[in-house]
Write a structure and sequence with these properties.
9 helices, 9% strand
Amino acid sequence: MKRKLPRIATIASSSVAFFLAITKIIVGFMTGSVAVIASAVDSILDMFVSIFNMIAVRLSESRADEKFNYGKGKIEGMAALFEGLLIIGSAGFIIYTAINKFLHHSTITKIDLAFYIMILSVTATFFLVLFLNYVAKRTNSLVIKSDALHYKTDLVSNIAIILVLIAVKLTGYYQIDFIVSIFIAIYIFKEALDLVKEGFLNLLDISLDFQTVEKIKTIIKKQTLVLDYHCLRTRQAGNRNFVDIHLVMTPDMKLKMAHTIIEQVEGKIRNINSDKIWVINIHADPYDDSAINKIQEEC
């Protein structure tokens, strides 16, 4: 069931984004609110991004084959990078639309209709964020994590738009709509930069998080028949964690015993997160040859 959760999450986010995009684009142009139009554009982008994420999840979960020996997990990093850049583009469009409307002294009509639609949008987005956060925590999927972050920014911006509509209704000061839209765009831009950074680092084979690496080191140190270790390298691609390490053991140890020790270490490492697929490569050394490995740039 855990393996299917990311797929269900992408289907849910695509469906919600499609519904909100159609609704808000109609109401946005009916009312003339820049904030609602900006939110509609963002929902349209959400829909395409969620569809892309759906494809990315399916590809990242596919098994390794002769052409892709390590699987296609890197597609998650590409998806996060793509989504972040797309969000930055939408932030730029929002700023452009707000400035253009301000220069032409545009006003908002049918504020009540816009208000009710944004209430509906906030409600739907709130429950979607709860579900995406649940899936992200259960699966640690970068794609779902990216989607959850994306919809969190949507939730904040939608709440801000509701406050704008209330303020315009009470004061009649339409410029609030344009000013707040620009602040929303700046907030979205900031969140998108973090997403781009995470996707980029994933493509560059950044190591596993500090806590996970420390747990791996602790497992090795507690193995009494392992004298030392070196060349510990880790990385992540999709739902796969990769670990390479050299273990130093007694030179005259029998092969069967060395194999048993390695299997024990591998088993304990896999138990760190059983939801992940672990690809572990352990090299047994009769002595510490880390200096030679470094010269040869093997680690």
